[in-house]
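Appendix B, example 12.
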Amino acid sequence: MKIDKSCTISAIFSRGKQYKVEVATEYGAASVICDTVKGVSIWCNEGSFVHAEIHPSQIDLEKGVMVVFSHWIANDVSAA
């Protein structure tokens, strides 16, 4: 906002439920996207769609050994 004269600015808060979503991985870099916000630990509004991603999905650990991303686990439940 651009201010060009004296004014009053009021903070407006929403009262909806939010949930903290965090992603973690031993390999590569993980992130989560919710309501256009992207990070490894973000707050999402109740009912929002969350997209988690990991890059790269295949990693060479050493000669002849590779790990490949398979799926996520959310609260001890497998998620595709």
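Residues 18-74 form one domain. The longest strand covers residues 29-34.
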